[in-house]
Design goal:
By secondary structure, the protein is mostly beta strands. The protein is built from 3 helices and 15 strands.
Length: 213
């Protein structure tokens, strides 16, 4: 008897990477064309630019961001705590679709807006304590195709991975991926258009919170 696909109607691709669990879904149903989703989010999202301090100097981060989620789904990153904005109808619909694909619940989403080739994301792992052990993350890419590159945290002989993420694709990251690997987005020398990345995740609510469950 043939094995039933976990992603009916989607050409899922298992990405081989030691100590990681990565699945790329090139074209899942987003409810509307990827270009339309991108345009709506770029226009309607209240983007903000945060700062980062390196070696005693403060610089603007090379991208814009927004944080949405359920009440009390606060997120701490780079020494800052982000208060969630309530899900919009579009983001709520996308969340449901990502949950269906990942088979896991999400209560928040981080939006990163790469305006052009000068915007980037340094190497990092989504391993904050409030995400729990072995978090499931669904990463939706819209707009310009960019490369997500992976580097091992400890065992350098594991090599590296450069993964192209086309518009409308979803990358599912599970298991020990965040424990063993860091990932980032490089600046480009060539000109490119905007890219929007949405990472859906489940933030564990603090003990004692009336919303904790």
């Amino acid at each position: 008897m043939p094995q039933m696909s976990l992603y009916p109607g989607v050409d899922a691709q298992a990405i081989p990477l030691p100590g990681a669990d990565l699945t790329l879904l090139p074209g899942p149903d987003l409810g509307k064309p990827a270009a339309a989703v991108l345009e709506e989010l770029l226009v309607d999202t209240p983007w903000r630019q945060e700062t980062i301090t390196l070696f005693g100097k403060t610089h603007p981060q090379p991208r814009l961001l927004a944080w949405y989620g359920e009440k009390k789904a606060h997120y701490r990153y780079s020494g800052k705590t982000y208060e969630p904005q309530p899900f919009t109808p579009l983001l709520a619909d996308l969340r449901q679709r990502m949950e269906d694909l990942a088979g896991a619940p999400f209560n928040s989403v981080l939006l990163n807006y790469y305006r052009d080739q000068r915007d980037s994301m340094g190497l990092h792992a989504d391993d904050e304590p409030e995400l729990g052990r072995e978090p499931v993350i669904a990463s939706l890419s819209l707009g310009e195709e960019r490369v997500l590159y992976f580097r091992p945290k400890r065992e350098r002989d594991l090599g590296a991975l450069d993964l192209k993420l086309p518009s409308g694709s979803v990358l599912l990251m599970r298991g020990a991926t965040q424990d063993n690997w860091k990932h980032g987005v490089r600046k480009l020398r060539r000109c490119c258009g905007p890219r929007l990345n949405l990472t859906f995740r489940h933030v564990q609510l603090r003990a004692g919170s009336p919303d904790a469950r």
